[in-house]
Prior knowledge:
Elements: H1 3-27, H2 32-65, H3 69-89, H4 101-125, H5 130-153, H6 159-179
Helix pairs in contact: 1-2, 1-4, 1-5, 1-6, 2-4, 2-5, 3-4, 3-6
Amino acid sequence: MSYIAIILLAIALSIDACVVSFSYGLAYTENRFANSMKLAGCTGAFQFLMPIIGYFLTGFVKSYIEPYAAWVVFVIFMYLGVKFIIEAFETKKAERLCIDIKCLLLIGIATSIDAFSAGITLSLYGNHIIKPAILIGAVTFANSMLGFGIGGRLKSFPTKWMEIMAGIILIALGVKAIIV
């Protein structure tokens, strides 16, 4: 997978963290910098770790799925892309936001499950994992900080369109996997 494709993947994977951070930016008016750093650090760290875990777990089953790797990549990215688009149209319940360690860990896991699948995909493409994982984590950290900052300044931001764009990027990467 090329670095341009990995950058697009990183941007798409970071959208969930950006949207969550945007919500927190709307809700929190005190300790904004500290809270944004906690949230961005947690989501960035999980987005860094989950592809690595997915990458190495793929090694156990790689010999069984390698002949179908392009199709597995296609299915994973199509699933993730369609999921992002469907979730963009779902009405989300307003929930009370917390920022303690338990909530941060849950947010980190919830926003990085897709990155686990991306690690599997990177393994199937034959990429090394450290540089893409660092890139995914860094982009997520930056987008999380951006989302928190924007959330503090705006009251209604079209997060729906960000999720749809992330879905389209993932679908395009899936289609590219079977065409190339």
